[in-house]
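Hi L., both proteins are below.
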Amino acid sequence: PAALNFGFNPEEYRPEAETIVYQLEACRSEEAVLEVIERELFEWFDEATADGPEVPAIAAEVWKLIEERNL
């Protein structure tokens, strides 16, 4: 989410991103992707970040990429 990356250190959130990426293979729907992202954002940050208004759009974009890769 935008509130997390200020562009100064692109590797700053690598560990958090990796915990999400490692779980994506098991996702079979956009909703499953959303659940993974929300759960990990809550675990690493807080409820406000996990429930941020941009999170569903991020999940949709990730799901689209997964579908394109699996074609």
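That was the first. Here is the second:
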Amino acid sequence: LEASNRGLESLLGLIKSHQNIDFVVAGDGELRNEFEGMSTYHNLKYLGTISHEEAFKELLKCDWIYAVYV
């Protein structure tokens, strides 16, 4: 969840402005506190750091995926 040039700041805004869309976010980094701090948003499920197996299971549940890899 690194901020620079990855669009994650925009994702934070989308979560806030599009309450009709459910977001699932996984990962760790400098924006972790931002995502954890949004726990009151009913449309955000923040998973933190997860295994590849857990990530694959979550991906199968999604209609749309935005993935950022290092």
